[in-house]
Amino acid sequence: MITFRGFQVHYTRVESALSKSGLPGLDYAFNPYIGCSHGCIYCYARLYTRNKQVADNWGKIVIVKSNIVDILKREIKRLKRGIVGIGTITDAYQPVEAVYKLTRSSLEILLNHGFNVSIQTKNPLVLRDLDILSSYKDNVDIGFTITTLDQRVASLIEPVAPLPKARIRAVEEISRRGIKSWIFYGPIIRGLNDDPRTIREIMQLAHNTGSILYYDLLHIKPFMKDPLHPLYKYVKLYSREWWNETKNIIIKHCMELGLTCKPAFTE
């Protein structure tokens, strides 16, 4: 175990690299790291992380799957080609990715062997790999989670994640390179990032970059109902009427801009 930028880094060995994905549009899921150092207070991934130490200390521990690249090399010889979601549980561009390059190495393997990849991240570190991604741009799409453009809000809900302005520059560069891009506007939290200005600015960013816009409300989980949790007072504001009104505003802006907008998940 080592300490890296304030969080612990542990190591494990795995027996498989790709798993079947239950997410729409994806055949496989690929997650080279367990845990996430972004520290997002709304993150659901802790609930789907089997490692109890990581789940109970969310944002403080990242586990590196040290042999995952070698396992992937073996697996792709027998698996049917398909679409691989990169970072479906936690961001595959963890800060430690700058050191270990598991995501980069795996992208090369997957794309060289005829797989398509769909990446969702908050980290502009993905731009490091544009040499690979640009060479296979017909087989790649890259999505950025952008919940707000207001740094004050971001510092509350995503305290250790890359700044919104850095993500904006990254999606603009991806678009400029001709790679299919999308923006995930979610979770939408009443009283924090559901105001008309935020909606309008994120819609405009999607329009300017030719990105598809996926939107999703905050799905309330038990840990958010703790009175000590920073989301507690916002969770109490929720109502079906509010969400319907918010969706209508989003859809209205999308229609005005000629923007492709889709709900991220079936409600």
Question: Could you explain the architecture of this structure?
Answer:
This protein has 267 residues and is an alpha/beta fold. It contains 10 helices and 12 strands. The protein has helices at 52-56, 68-75, 97-100, 102-112, 130-135, 151-157, 164-176, 196-209, 232-235, 240-257; strands at residues 2-4, 7-12, 18-20, 28-30, 33-34, 61-65, 83-86, 116-121, 140-145, 180-188, 212-217, 261-263. An 8-stranded mixed β-sheet has the order 3-4-7-8-9-10-11-12, with helices on one face. Strands 1-2-6-5 form a 4-stranded mixed β-sheet, with no helix packed on it. A hairpin with a 7-residue loop joins strand 3 and strand 4. The longest helix is centred in the last third of the chain and has 18 residues, at 240-257. The mean pLDDT is 95.
Largest sheet: 8 strands, mixed
Number of strands: 12
Q: What is the overall silhouette?
A: globular
What Rg do the Cα atoms give? 18 Å
Secondary-structure element pattern, one letter each: EEEEEHEHEHHEHEHHEHEHHE
| Overall average residue pLDDT | 95
Helical percent range? 25-40%
Annotate the secondary structure layout:
Blueprint: E1 2-4, E2 7-12, E3 18-20, E4 28-30, E5 33-34, H1 52-56, E6 61-65, H2 68-75, E7 83-86, H3 97-100, H4 102-112, E8 116-121, H5 130-135, E9 140-145, H6 151-157, H7 164-176, E10 180-188, H8 196-209, E11 212-217, H9 232-235, H10 240-257, E12 261-263
Parallel strand pairs: 2-6, 4-7, 7-8, 8-9, 9-10, 10-11, 11-12
Antiparallel strand pairs: 1-2, 3-4, 5-6
